[in-house]
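Dear colleague,

Thank you for sharing your sequence with our group. We've completed the structure prediction you requested, and as agreed, I am returning the results in plain text so they can be pasted directly into your records. Please verify that the sequence below matches your submission; if there's any discrepancy, let me know and we will rerun it promptly.
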Amino acid sequence: MTVTQFESLLITHGSAILGFCRHLTGNEVSAQDLYQDTLLKAFSKLARINCDTTEEMISAKNYLIGIAVRLYQNQKRRKMNYETSFTDDMEDMLYAEENVIDESEQKELYIAVRQAVDALPEKLRIVTVMLYYADMELSEIAHQLKIPTGTVKSRLSRARTSIREHLKENGYEGF
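Please find the predicted structure tokens below.
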């Protein structure tokens, strides 16, 4: 990948990668730091990244997300302070749906889902965020986390069950 292609990748997918970093870290300052660290790491590996076609551009975005996950996990191992929460992306997704529930109920549901996802163990939370917020395929998640696809499916299943149980406990039936 050339520097020009790297710039194009950032123009096209930079906000999605930053959003993913926000989901992962839970706060803006940590997200900005993780994003910058990810870009520095990726820039040092430009020769390894192909970005000639649209498909390769998406693959490169997923590669950067994988770098972000690994850097985040390394930072966690070093006992860095973090606080887990989600940003407005989830709220935007809920508001984009058919407005079946009035706005206050929808906001309550958003908060309940966010709390449920925040409460997930890290392994379950990471695959959930990668699937739903980074729009990654199961195989891409498996490749980036260096785990089997079956493990990704299993973690997602456990995450969904946990989120459903959390919502049920808080009075949100039928989710």
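Summary note from our side: Confidence is low (pLDDT under 50) at residues 80-89, 96-101.

Kind regards,
the structure core
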